[in-house]
Amino acid sequence: MAKNHTKMRLKLLYTLLLLFAVNVFTCEAQNKKEKVLTQVKFSENTNAPLTTMEMSILTEAYGENLESLVLSKPQRLKDLKHLLRNRIQIVNAKTKDLSPFPLVSSQSTFKYYKKSFSKNILYQGLNFNPLQFNLNFYSREATTYRIDNTNYILIIKPQH
Predict the structure, then answer these.
(1) How far apart are CA 85 and CA 93, in angstroms?
(2) Rounded to two decimals, what is the model's pTM?
(3) Contact 121, 148 (CB under 8 A)
């Protein structure tokens, strides 16, 4: 009887060890599949001063907080230049089915620093301000939105 009890304990121990090993290997494989974030590499163009249009976009987004939250913080300013100059793209996709893309207006407006944004979307070329909306600017993958009532899509490239 004692031998059977010992055999059962050993079987249980081996089963637990096997399950533990499978779990460790599964977790390790899953960790390797996750995209490793790399350091953000900024283009040379982020060293150039803000353009009039960029200053207008930032002023509209940050209002009276622009100086304290952006202009006085060199890294924050560089991040926003990188976003506006290299990661946001507006493309005319007139031959493409745009129905899968969420509308920009379906996203909430960004009212944290400036309370007066409205959802009246009228794309007029340079007048569109993507910082007006809570868009997914920091996804690990490209994110695409349709600009309401147009054939234009807004593409946000990942920063990594």
Answers:
(1) 20
(2) 0.70
(3) yes
Please say whether the beta carbons of 100 and 72 come within 8 A: no
CA nearest neighbour of 109 among 136, 132, 80, 84:
132
pLDDT digit string, tens, across residues 22-56: 666 665 656 555 666 677 888 899 999 999 999 99
The answer to whether residues 86 and 138 touch, using CB atoms and an 8 Å cutoff, is no
CB contact at 8 A, 127 and 140: no
* Residue 33 DSSP SS3: helix
Q: What are phi and psi of 51, to 5 degrees?
A: -80, 170
Query: 15: how many CB neighbours lie within 10 A of its CB?
Result: 10
The DSSP code for 86 is I
